[in-house]
Amino acid sequence: MSFIDSLNKLLGDPNEKELKKLRVLTPKVREWQSSDEYKALALDDLPKKTEEFKKRIADGASLDDLLPEAFGLVGRACELLAGTEYEEDGMEFRWDIKSPFDVQIIGGVSLHQGYIAEMRTGEGKTFTCTMPIYLNALVGKGVHVVTVNDYLAKRDAAWMGLLYKALGLTVGVILHEKNHEERKEAYAADVTYGTNNEFGFDYLRDNMAVSKNRQVQRGLHYAIVDEVDSILIDEARTPLIISQPAGKSTEKYGHYAKLVQGLIENLDYNRDEKQKTAALTEDGIAKLEKLLGVENIYTSKGFEEVHHIEQALRAHSMYKRDTDYVVRDGEVIIVDEFTGRLMQGRRYSHGLHQAIEAKENVEVQRESKTLATITFQNYFRIYEKLAGMTGTAKTEEEEFDSIYKRRTVVIPTNKPIARDDKPDAIYRTVEAKFTAVTKFAREFHEKGQPVLIGTTSIEKSEVLSALLTRENIPHKVLNAKHHEQEAEIVANAGQKGSITIATNMAGRGTDIKLGEGVAALGGLAILGTERHESRRIDNQLRGRAGRQGDKGESRFFVSMEDDLMRLFGGDRLKDMMERLKVPDDVPLENSFVSRSIEGAQ
Question: Which end of the chain is less enclosed by CB atoms within 10 A, N or C?
Fold first, then answer.
C-alpha cells in the first residue's frame, strides 16, 4: 500500500468525498424521470416544459433548484426517442440511449457545478454533457461545447441534435469553412458546437470588428470542453494569432538552409532534445563567419542574421518530416504532438516555419506581423462558467486547480473495468521491439482477436506498416496523412481479425466497438510501440480497450533506444541487460521497471 493510499484510508479518499456530494441529486433526478407527470408527457409536450422552466428562471428560480427536474426531463426525452433512426448532415444515426446511467447523472451534475470530470472511454461523455448543457441553455445566453476537431463537432451536433430539438432547443455548429453569417447564426443557437480554434479565432476577430453587427459571438457564458486535458493543459500556452504578411524577402531562408547543411553535430553545434533547441559552438561560429565573409556575426547589424541561422539549424537538426510536420501539396503542415492530427493553418513563429519550408524546398511564405493574439489558457478563463471532461484528468489535477481554479473528480465506471494491463516488455533494440510487435500482431490476427497498435509518429506508423506488409499481415493505417478515412477505420478496428496501426489520433473522441464474437476471443488488444513523454497519452491508448466492461488487454513494447529511455536514463538499464547477456529477442518484463518508466514520464 502506497503512502497516498495509507493517507486516504486514514483521512478518507478526497474523490469519494466529492462523489458523495454529487450522488445526492441522483435519486431526485430518477424520481422526476419516473414521476406520473413526466410519464404522461409525449414528445410534443417537451418544448412546453422547456418554456415553463425558462419562465421560472425569469421569475427568480435558480438552475440548482431546477436541476433534478431538468435532468429528469432529459431522461424522459431519451425514453421517448429510443429506437429513432434519423439522418442529419449526411450522417445516419439511431438513438439507442434509453435512459442515463447513474454515473452519467453524477457526471452531469459535476459538469454543471464546474468540475473537470474524468470519465473513462466508452462511458458516454458525449451524452453525459447533454444534461448540464440543457440546464444551462435555459438561461438564454448560449452554451459552447468545445471539441478537438471539426469532425467531432459536426458529428456530436448532429447526433445529440435530435435530443436538443425534441426539448425545444436550437443547435449550431462552427466549422472552418463557415462564413460570417453562418457563424452568427450558429452562435445565436442555444447550443453551439465547435473546436477550440474556431471559438478562439472568432473571439479575436470580434475584438477587431469595427462595429457590433460585424461580431458573431454573443458573449462567453458557459463552456464544456471535451478532451479538456488536451485543450486546457497541452495547448494552454499555444497562441492563436491573426496576422498579415510583413513584406520581408524570403530569399534568405534558402541561403541559410544550405549553409547549415555543412555544419557537423557535436563539433559545430550541440542539440538539446529535451528543449528541442540547437546551439552553435565556437567552431561553428568561426565556420559560419568564414562562409559569410564577416569578422563577427554577433554585431547589432548581424543580430537578425544570427537569429535566422539558428532557426535554420533547428529546422535542420531538430524537426523531422512525418514526425513534427508533413509536406502536402507544397505546404508544410504541423502535426500536433499530443493528438497526432494535422494543424491546418497553424504556423511555427519567429521564422522557424519559413526555415522548415526552405529545408523542404517548397515555396517559402512571407513572415507575418501579428494583429491580434490570445492563448487558449487566457481565452477559456474569460468564460463566466467553465467545465470539462476527459478520460484522463487526474494526472493534471494540480494544474487544473492552480491555473483554472477547477476541481477534478473521477466518475466511477458503469461496469467494472475488465481490461488486463500487462507489464511493459522492454527490449534492447528498436529492431527487436518491432519484431516482437509484428509477432504478437500475427498471433492475435490468427486467432481473430482485433489489434490496435499505437505509434508516436507518422514515420514510425509507416515503418511498422512496411514490416507487417513484408510479413503479409493485412492491416489499416490511421495517421494524419490518412485522416479522411478516420471514421471508417475506427468503425472497423474492433471487428474480428482486424489490425489497425495508429498514431495518437486513435486515442481521442471515437469509441472502438467490438464486433460479433470478439468478446469471447478476449476483446480488443492494445499494443503500444513506445512510451510517450506524457503518461496521459499512454493511458488514452490503453483506454481504447475495455469500454463499458468489455474484455481487452494492453501492453507497451519499449526499447532502450526509444527517445524517452535515452533522454531519461535508460542507459543504466541497457548496460545491465548487456552485462547479463540478455538476448535481443528476450524482453525484460517487470512491474517495478514499468513504474520507473512512468516516473520518467
Answer: N
* H-helix or E-strand spanning residue 305: helix 303-317
- Phi and psi (nearest 5°) for 400? -60, -40
Place of cell 447564426: 185
Q: How many CB atoms lie within 10 A of CB 575?
A: 11
Let me know how long the chain is: 601
Q: What is the CA radius of gyration of the chain?
A: 26
Which residues lie below 8 Å from residue 184, measured CB to CB, with a gap of 6+? 216
Alpha-carbon gap, residue 465 to 476, rounded angstroms: 8
Hey, is 320 helix, strand or coil?
coil
CA distance 347 to 241: 9
Alpha helices by DSSP H, 138-179: 150-166
Q: Is residue 3 part of a domain?
A: no
pLDDT of residue 147: 94
In this structure, is residue 4 part of a structural domain?
A: no
- Pick from 376, 339, 335, 273: which is nearest to 537 by CA? 339
Assigned domain for 5 exists: no
pLDDT-based confidence at 1, cuts 50/70/90? very low
H or E element, residue 280: strand 277-280
78, 86, 97, 562 from 83: Cα distances, Å = 10, 10, 8, 49
Give me the domain span that covers residue 194. 12-240+376-410
pLDDT of residue 326 exceeding 70:
yes
Residue 222 is placed in which grid cell?
458557459
pTM of structure:
0.80
What is each CA distance from 356 to 258, 309, 330, in whole angstroms? 12, 12, 12
Q: In total, how many domains does the chain have?
A: 3
Cβ pair 357, 332 in contact under 8 A: yes
SS3 94: strand
Instruction: Give residue for cell 507489464.
Output: 423
Asked if 400 and 531 sit in the same domain, the reply is: no
Ranges of beta strands (E only) in 329-424 are 331-334, 368-375, 385-390, 408-410, 418-421
Report pLDDT digits (tens) over 214-256. 999 999 999 999 989 989 998 888 889 888 777 666 788 999 9
Give percent helix, percent strand, percent coil of the chain, each to the nearest 5.
Answer: 50, 20, 35
Q: Give the type of residue at 97.
A: I
Cα separation, 530 vs 601, whole angstroms: 12
Nearest to 63 by CA among 72, 51, 74, 54: 54
570 plus 468 within the same structural domain? yes
CA distance 164 to 38: 17
Beta strand spans in 494-582 (E): 499-502, 524-528, 551-559
Spatial CA neighbour of 255 closest among 365, 331, 355, 327 = 355
Average pLDDT of 129-158?
Answer: 95
Hey, is 462 helix, strand or coil? Answer: helix
Which is nearest to 110 in space by CA: 234, 20, 11, 13? 20
